[in-house]
Specification:
- This protein folds into two domains: about 5-95 and about 295-310, NAD(P)-binding Rossmann-like Domain (Rossmann fold); about 100-130 and about 145-285, Rossmann fold (3-Layer(aba) Sandwich).
- About 35% of the residues lie in helices and about 15% in strands.
- The protein has 13 helices and twelve strands.
- The two termini are about 30 Å apart.
- Bound molecules: (2R)-2,3-dihydroxypropanoic acid.
- (2R)-2,3-dihydroxypropanoic acid (DGY) binds near residues 75, 77, 100 and 290.
Length: about 325
């Protein structure tokens, strides 16, 4: 039976074609900053499915007496969705894990290297013609990533993919924190599981891959930053809310830690002015972990698969846990 599917923001045209080809009505909205909850609620009145993105706000109100049967978010993280309220309302929520693992892990390594080797400031110096001849005592000197110790906070799919790159590609020693022990990863990467405090104290690079929940919000704050080494680099490709930006900026300004590579921010697309004031100690990218053409197309296709499955009465491939 034909269903009504609301699409909150522009997506690959092939995705809309597939939904229409299956006989469904598609209402394609164009909300470049994401839909607030009241607008989602209005837009989904009488709709069966919602194809949404991480900037849409799907609070409990959205699911009250809703006609929706499925919300498919084109993202792995779903902290913007009240999944419990959805489940209580009988709405399936799906996400797009796996397909963005490699692209996001690649960006975590990119940020780590960019901070360690001062890539943005080097680029600026070359462009401004202020480099001069080769200098043995070049300042600022880089930090060696090869052979350094990497602390991974949250050893899920992306955390493991980072461990793989770091261990096999860069000979890094791998430490991790996770709710449960990951014996296979321990064997594969000679990884050691430690409590967060010890991981922070022993790592040269700390890379965040935990989901954003009430428990993990501001996991990196003044206290946890004070445990890190002065030569340490923080990398965040997970969610901005894992880090207190004010506390991180203070730690960077005071030299408490050496640098940070951040792809995600507490109030995207805004970045706290204190962080911007840190200059090249903070390498900043605009939430582009999954932004390769192949990956973004695969995410969208997977979200469409999930919608079509649920509308056909089949189990979805990627229900959120
Ligand atoms: C996700 O999928 O959660 C990423 O943050 C966006 O690509």
């Amino acid at each position: 039976m034909a269903a009504k599917i609301v699409v909150t923001q522009p997506v690959h045209p092939e995705a809309l074609d597939r939904l229409r080809a299956a006989g469904h009505e598609v209402v394609a909205l164009d909300s470049p900053r994401g839909l607030p909850a009241d607008e989602v609620r209005k837009a989904t009145d009488g709709a069966d499915a919602l194809l949404s993105q991480l900037t849409d706000r799907l609070t409990a109100d959205v699911f009250e007496k809703t006609s929706l049967r499925i919300v498919a978010t084109i993202a792995t993280g779903y902290d913007n969705i009240d999944a419990r309220a959805a489940s209580e309302a009988g709405v399936v929520v799906t996400h797009t894990p796996d397909v963005l693992t490699d692209a996001t892990a690649d960006l975590a390594m990119t940020l780590m290297l960019a901070v360690a080797r001062h890539i943005p400031e080097s680029d600026t110096t070359v462009r401004s013609g202020t480099t001069g001849p080769f200098r043995l005592l070049h300042e600022p000197m880089g930090i060696d990533i090869s052979g350094a110790t990497l602390g991974i906070v949250g050893l899920g799919r992306i955390g493991e993919a980072v461990a793989q790159r770091a261990h096999f590609g860069f000979g890094m020693k791998i430490l991790y924190t996770a709710r449960s022990q990951h014996s296979a990863a321990e064997e594969r990467f000679a990884a050691e599981r430690l409590p967060l405090e010890q991981l922070l104290a022993q790592s040269d690079v700390v890379s965040l891959h935990a989901p954003l929940t009430d428990e993990t919000r501001h996991l990196i704050n003044r206290e946890s930053l004070s445990l890190m080494r002065p030569n340490a680099i923080l990398v965040n490709t997970g969610r901005g809310g894992l880090v207190s930006e004010v506390d991180l900026a203070a730690a960077l300004q005071s030299g408490q830690i050496a640098g940070a590579g951040l792809d995600v921010f507490e109030n995207e697309p805004d970045v706290h002015p204190d962080l911007l004031a840190c200059g090249p100690r903070a390498v900043l990218t605009p939430h582009v972990g999954s932004a390769t053409a192949k990956t973004r197309a695969a995410m969208t296709a997977l979200a469409v698969d999930n919608i079509l499955a649920v509308l056909a009465g089949d189990p979805p491939r990627n229900p959120v846990p």
